[in-house]
């Protein structure tokens, strides 16, 4: 049924699933509708094409709806079905403009583009552009200092949700860190979420082979991603001051030498809520670390743990007060980084190597089960509900 709905969605509007990849491609100018501010409107459309930074789906929908209203007037399309996510979002945005006059919509479009151009320009000056450039990462900030390589997830406005680019960049950063001259590696997140897990919009970018191919590619990517954590040779520390959701907690918690959390952090693996199943080897590591009963509460029922609870369960090494978190953690990290690196590496190897083969086998099995889950109605409905803003975790 979910397959069918997705296929229908694709057939109805083949480009729909990339929407929100950039609305400019859909801005077919209806020249006859232009009057007084035609020149401004055309300029604004050109300006949109030149934006260097993606303004986000909300803004793109606003641009789309204003464009449609300005050129065609009030929404005149039949309402798309609930599974046709992208066209439904576009329809909702356009329809919400009601009977706004064309001229006003045109003016609003021009104003929005102008504010967008200036805010994106100024934000790119404030943003750590130099960090990005020096590391070459779009979704991470990676620094290396005092024997510590710090990999910081850097999509704070999306709660550090892992888009496909971020999966690849984390793998790349881990591989680079395994070879650099740092002694330890720290994984952390920028903003008020360590991570909100898989970016659920990953599910909307359907390749020509359809949802089956999408699920297969996702399983390959996830297996490779988790594999990088299993094979990572140096001490890896997860440092989380805020909530961690979904699967980054699983691999990074399962294989970290240490997990430091502030008393504000929470740990949540809501696989069932999303119609999915455990990954990151959590089906194997969590029952071993916590106890089968507690792991079931977390992995099957999606129970959220506070940092204190996670520490009592052995999932977290130590909890610090939020106000002194950074100071206390970095004092420890700097001391660890001064220990002989080869000794640490060999000690880690001896602890982990016995389990390595098993972990790779568990990873493969979990990814294969997930591949099926991603094609299920349960999963599709959960994703649709989040993307249509009906649910949050
Ligand atoms: C290929 C391998 C796949 C492996 C599968 C792994 C399983 C998992 O990872 S399970 C976890 C999946 N994650 C979620 O379901 C979290 C969904 N997000 C939320 O429930 C909420 O956003 C939040 C509780 C994390 C935060 O709520 P809050 O009200 O504070 O902020 P928002 O306004 O909701 O978020 C801000 C901004 O960020 C976008 N966003 C947040 N999380 C995600 C996400 N996981 N995927 C995509 N987008 C996310 C959210 O839509 C907002 O975006 P806009 O500002 O553009 O509206």
TrEMBL record:
Q: Which locations, inside or outside the cell, does it occupy?
A: Mitochondrion; Peroxisome matrix
- The question of whether Mitochondrion is a record keyword is answered with yes
State the EC number(s): 5.3.3.8
**Keyword Cytoplasm, does the record have it?**
no
Native source species: Cercocebus atys
Specify the protein name: Enoyl-CoA delta isomerase 2
Which family is this sequence assigned to? In the C-terminal section; belongs to the enoyl-CoA hydratase/isomerase family.
Domain (ACB): give its ranges.
37-122
**Which pathway does the record list?**
Lipid metabolism; fatty acid beta-oxidation
Q: What catalytic activity is recorded?
A: (3E)-tetradecenoyl-CoA = (2E)-tetradecenoyl-CoA; (3E)-octenoyl-CoA = (2E)-octenoyl-CoA; (2E)-tetradecenoyl-CoA = (3Z)-tetradecenoyl-CoA; a (3E)-enoyl-CoA = a 4-saturated (2E)-enoyl-CoA
Query: What is the top EC class of this enzyme, as a single word?
Result: isomerase
Determine the domain of life of the protein's source: Eukaryota
